[in-house]
Amino acid sequence: MKNKQLSAIVVGAGAGGGVMAKELAQSGIRVTLFERGDWPSYDKHINDELISQRVQELGSAFGPDWEKNPRVVRHDDGSEQLVTAQSYAYNHVAACVGSGTVSYGAMAWRFMPEDFKMKSVYGAVPGSTLADWPISYEDLAPYYDKAEQEIGVSGDMSQNPFAPNQHQSYPMPAFEYNRDGAFLDGVCREMGLHPFSIPMLRNSVPYNGRAGCIRNRTCCGFACPIDAKNGTHNTVIPTALATGNCELKTNSFVYHIETDGRRATAVSYFDADKKSHRLEADIIVVSASASETARLLLNSASSHFPKGIGNRNDWVGRNLQGHAYTGASGLFDFDLLDLSGPGACVAIMDYNHHNEGIIGGGVLCNEFYQLPYAFSQHRPPGAPRWGKAHKQYQRENYHRLGRMIGPIQEIPNFDSRVMVSDRVRDYWGVPVVVNTGSRHPIDEKHCNFLASKAEAILKKAGAYQTWQHGGGGGMTGGQHQAGTCRMGDDPATSVTDRFGRVHDLDNLYIADGSLMVTNGGFNPVLTILALAYRTGEHIVNQWSV
Amino acid sequence: MKSNRRQFIKQCMLLYGSVLFLPSCRPSAAPVWYSGFTAQEASAIDAICEQLIPADDYPGAREAGVIHYIDKLLYQRFPQHKQTYRQGLAGVEACSQALYGNSFAELTGAQQIAMLELMERGELPARYWPQTTQKAFFELILAHTMQGFYGSPRHGGNKDYVSYRMMKLDYPLLIGQNRYEK
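YS: structure for the whole thing
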């Protein structure tokens, strides 16, 4: 078998790392895939709203351990605050095999062609690092195809004139609407909008040897009990392991990368017993999320890279983006919900691009079903939060609340960033992430735009009371974190080249949301998967003899 | 979870230790119902929770066992909140005595609601809460009451799924994965 002599290390078994492991292992490269968490097991991921990925009042079912992995939030006034995975602004991403792809809502968006050339389309924005990607939609399209086929997407874009893949079919048919989805679809059509069934990384019919979805309402935030939701943990990672070329090291935390100045040579990691080890490889890929990838590069400073690997020009950790979720809710005098999960099923892309005065915009969807506790935290402005009125609201409106909500494309700025702490260390003694900076002020305008459009739909639908929620301002990151190791053609203003290779080194690659120059007005996972397929193919071509 | 279990075992050892070796040190013969607070504190918590989610046509916080959720939370998961509870409850008691000459738990429903509304807005005299604030305590116990009432029964509250029944949510919530529920 060719390439048998080559070895690779992949750090992080989430969306990007899972795909990367499979691409490399299939080509014959010997892969060690590191994951700081464990395999997700259903015994841990129980049906418990207070321990889900969306509501973490009592902890997270998917890691990381809340006591061992603190982070620091640095506020604008310079004060610092220690936070856990359950705190605001921690920017929590699941730490388990599959990471967020185990418990996500599984929306499978392609970015639009405009999302790859934001600066060309909209011009420079003062105070922003808005830029074009070094690659176009067309460059990434074949890898979107591959992600949709191999991980598995259900959908149908034929009714959506804004979809770049309008005339192309998905491997599985689209999901049927639930009651609120069907209702809001009709309302949108009346308004001249273009609703469609959300493409999902979830089986609408049996696929890839696993079952079709049974429409649990506890889907987003939970692992699927029948394995009908598609992540890297039940697709590409098992495929990689089956090649015999991939070893998965769980509970193993990579904390340092060694270089000789031109090449990355080895990583150091702690095993489950907190014992440190060192492993050499020919190729190293970091796919640990926008926060942890930046942390690993910054923590790997050496005489060759005194400010951290790839950080010659101080771009590592910069331009942290997420998604300001924004939208509106409305109360109806009839039952709107039938609780056929996961809730979100209808979307419009009418407000992504080509809206007067708006840079980017965002997709609008009906919302994933909220469980009773989350519902108790959501009220119209001024409504009582407790007492008889609270209780009455809970039971009268749980089935009668409609919501349209979406991720606003954030406009990146240099000072929204991930750093490493010079004071705080984690359980293993490794300097932790410091989150600092805030969103660009222009996001507020875009949020108001999308929220007012959402409210207009609910008003048209006949809601007797509506209100807007969400908005810009504050710190960013969250589960959709991106941008901290931007790809670009100019090493002075980026961290990696157009294939995700760190500029200064021949054999160090990145394969996660860190690469993304801008974060689109969509959930980013399909783009992360596609980028990993593209970089994986490139590595194989580059390194095959 | 490991450290929780450790803490729990430590608590047990302390308790048994006192029973075995220092029986004379135990105050009176009153049964110990809660790990995190005294009987008097418990009656105040119970009264506050019941006003936050009162019984109407459906059971309220008391019948749902919200206080058990809070007790478990304070000794198992968030022992750092114990202090806020202790200080917050002391303030409630002192303020209630000053305003009405009675314990909070003994006030009429209308008096309790009036006090809680003022607390929520931070409008009771601040001197009763020298080490925490009335608003901080109010927000904490409000959040915990909601979690206890609407969260899974396995954490101590929402006994017999009273909140789910009220909201017309059927069970099992997650088909094929209800082994913890019955």
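YS: worth flagging: Chain A has eleven helices and 18 strands.
IM: good catch. Also Chain A has a mean pLDDT of 96.
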